[in-house]
UniProtKB/TrEMBL annotation:
Signal peptide residue numbers: none
UniProt keywords, alphabetically: FAD, Flavoprotein
Similarity comment: Belongs to the GMC oxidoreductase family.
Domain of life: Eukaryota
Pfam family name, one: GMC_oxred_N
Composition skew (Acidic residues), residue ranges: 22-36
Region (Disordered): 1-45
Glucose-methanol-choline oxidoreductase N-terminal domain: residues covered: 165-188, 357-371
GO molecular function, one term: flavin adenine dinucleotide binding
Protein name: Glucose-methanol-choline oxidoreductase N-terminal domain-containing protein
Length: 559
């Protein structure tokens, strides 16, 4: 969003940033201890600023008397002064998977001031995030938005949970770390639906640019079926996200490869070639050297967090974008956020960039007056830009699976999930001393994109046609015809399969990712899970997500 306002200025004398750990007085300031860890307050000319968030390394910058704008900067160990007349040329709502990438790239220009507003906290040093196997412990905590659908009439009135990272790094900080290539057919469909520049040919170089692949030894490459992976045919480059493959061949991976080879569905090409049909051993966002999660916060933001022109405010919940139509067109003037229960407005410079995720981005737009005019008016929201597509056509993967008990020699994650003390102690010792063991690896390494072979016979095609006619979506969308075409194709993947090395809870009460990973079954299990790639029905997130904002209920509607 473009803004015509570019006059974000400080108090007389400009913004000053002189606080360091242990300072009791700073020239020109009367310091008062606010009682927050790592936080200091300052009073000058009757204008007070106070530390928010409680994380060490944050420093006072200022409070503008004229606009009531609270400015904070996440500066780590460095202490930089903010220049007088600061103009945040770019303000990003959301410091997650994509927001930090954009902010990092924009701040490469030293002449541009970039502000990131993140609803969650900074957890860069949190071992629950950094240790790969601990990701299930993050789900359902304060680091997870823990969205829920409204009751689904077609699912026995169950509600379905959808996780989302509420912290610096977003969902890349809490996911299961599987680094799976998108399919060419899926991305090309975005362009065909009117999104110019979002096809495979345009996006593929950026997939390559964002990550680095640790190439296994020649012996391991051959065992894992990765002969195509060479230094000259590398799907990655020297990108910030560090990815790695399993450190050794095991019985599960071997059985997975053999099974799909026997079915004639082995993938002989690089999975990032766009030809996504068949099985492959996937890499994960685990640094092959440190054996820690590699995600947007520690890969993109952390190395450049001391840039004097890159500013971060955590625990800042974006309420809406301040819009003005005095010129006839809606122009973004700033962002209204809530920090520790107090509302603040950050004035915009040139652009406000919304990067708050698939569910929160439309929420922010609609609360700002951008969306379906009839809906917004019914909720008492002033309409600035009418766009009936906002909050519509959301899709997610429907998941199911089956768990099989395996022989004792197969190492699974069940003992860890059941919190067996001796197993946990041994695993932690192996991780801390050698960076090996179950804590060091990602949960998913065997993957496959597949069509539905049964639909390719004459009988199967008739069954598919019958299914499509008798189970039409409750709400037709622009993606419905595309989903139908993929289902009937022999060379396009309509679903994916993967192995999760533990018991999966797919009972009727397991309506969230967290519950699926929680099992009380004793024993050693593997789960083969299946996810639908392209749903015939789509969500609309509008009304209930807006009402969630007012009522603190994380719900959305999936017709």
């Amino acid at each position: 969003m473009t803004s015509q306002s570019s006059n974000l200025k400080g108090n007389e004398g400009g913004y000053e940033d002189h606080f360091a750990e242990g300072d009791e007085e700073v020239e020109g300031h009367e310091v008062e201890d606010e009682g927050l860890e790592g936080g200091r307050g300052a009073r000058r000319s009757g204008v007070m600023g106070r530390m928010v968030g409680g994380d060490k390394g944050r420093s006072f910058v200022g409070w503008s008397d004229g606009w009531g704008v609270l400015l904070w900067r996440e500066i780590g160990r460095a202490r930089h002064g903010l220049p007088s007349g600061t103009d945040f040329r770019y303000s990003l709502t959301g410091g997650g998977t994509s927001g930090l990438v954009v902010a990092t790239r924009l701040s490469e220009n030293p002449e541009i001031q970039v502000l990131v507003l993140e609803a969650g906290g900074n957890h860069l040093e949190n071992p629950q995030i950094n240790i790969p196997a601990l990701w299930p412990s993050l789900l359902g905590t304060e680091l997870d938005w823990a969205f829920k659908t409204v009751p689904q009439s077609e699912l026995g009135n169950r509600t379905i949970g959808l996780p989302g990272g509420r912290l610096l790094g977003g969902s890349s900080a809490i996911n299961a770390q599987a680094f799976i290539a998108a399919s060419k057919v899926g991305l090309d469909a975005w362009k065909e639906l009117g999104n110019e520049g979002w096809d495979w040919d345009f996006m593929e170089p950026y997939y390559k640019k964002c990550h680095t692949v640790e190439i296994p030894s020649d012996k391991l490459r051959k065992e894992l079926g990765l002969n195509h992976l060479t230094s000259s045919n590398n799907p990655g480059s020297d990108g910030p996200i560090q990815t790695s493959y399993p450190p050794k061949m095991d019985a599960v991976i071997e059985a997975w490869i053999d099974t799909f080879n026997n079915l004639k569905y082995e993938m002989s090409e690089n999975a990032f070639s766009g030809s996504s049909v068949g099985d492959f051993v996937n890499n994960s966002i685990v640094n092959g050297i440190t054996k820690e999660r590699s995600y947007s916060a520690n890969a993109y933001f952390k190395p450049v967090q001391n840039r004097y022109n890159l500013h971060l405010v955590t625990d800042a919940l974006a309420e809406k974008i301040i819009l003005d139509k005095a010129s006839g067109e809606a122009v973004a003037k700033g962002v209204k956020v809530t920090i520790k229960g107090v509302e603040h407005i950050f004035q915009a410079g040139k652009e406000v960039i919304v990067a708050a995720g698939a569910l929160n981005s439309p929420k922010i737009l609609e609360l700002s007056g951008i969306g379906n005019a009839k809906l917004l008016s019914s909720l008492g929201i002033d309409v600035y830009v009418e766009n009936s597509n906002v909050g519509e056509n959301s899709q997610d993967h429907t998941s199911s699976g089956m768990s099989f008990e395996v022989i004792d020699e197969i190492q699974t994650l069940d003992p860890l999930n059941l919190q067996e003390p001796k197993v946990i102690a041994a695993a932690m010792s192996a991780y801390q001393t050698e960076k090996t063991g179950p804590f060091a690896g990602a949960a998913i390494s065997s993957f496959a994109y597949m069509p539905v072979p049964d639909f390719q016979t004459l009988k199967g095609k008739a069954e598919l046609e019958h299914l499509l006619l008798t189970h039409e979506p409750l709400k037709e969308s622009v993606t419905t015809e595309f989903a139908r075409s993929v289902l009937s194709s022999a060379d396009k993947s309509s679903a994916c399969y993967f192995v999760y090395a533990a018991h999966g809870n797919f009972e009727s009460d397991a309506s969230s990712a967290k519950n699926i990973t929680i099992s009380h079954e004793s024993g050693n299990f593997l789960t083969i899970a299946c996810e639908l790639g392209y749903s015939l029905s789509c969500s609309e997130t509008s009304r209930t997500v807006i009402m969630w904002f007012y009522s603190s209920k994380h719900t959305l509607n999936r017709p």
